[in-house]
Write a structure and sequence with these properties.
Layout lengths: L3 E2 L5 E7 L4 E6 L4 E4 L4 H9 L3 H9 L5 E3 L23
Helix pairs in contact: 1-2
Length: 91
Amino acid sequence: MRRHRVASTSIRSAGYDARTRTLEIEFIDGQVYRYLDVANGVYRQLMSARSKGQFVNSQIRDVYRYRDSNGFSAAAYADTAPRDIPEDRRH
């Protein structure tokens, strides 16, 4: 998937695959997250948001299932309270 660089202090780039409805976000620290079953409109809103980091935090992070570049999947913690999720997995 092709990602586009964005102006953000927390996000380096973002891309979207309409066929699979997958949103891919690369954070400044190099981690890449693939959010699943995301509507194209959400991607367009992200790309036009004044603060992309705030948009991800409020509209994407806790809403969509994801996989990260380390192979972690949110489904692994589906029945776990947020406080039990390791700190480095709380994007």
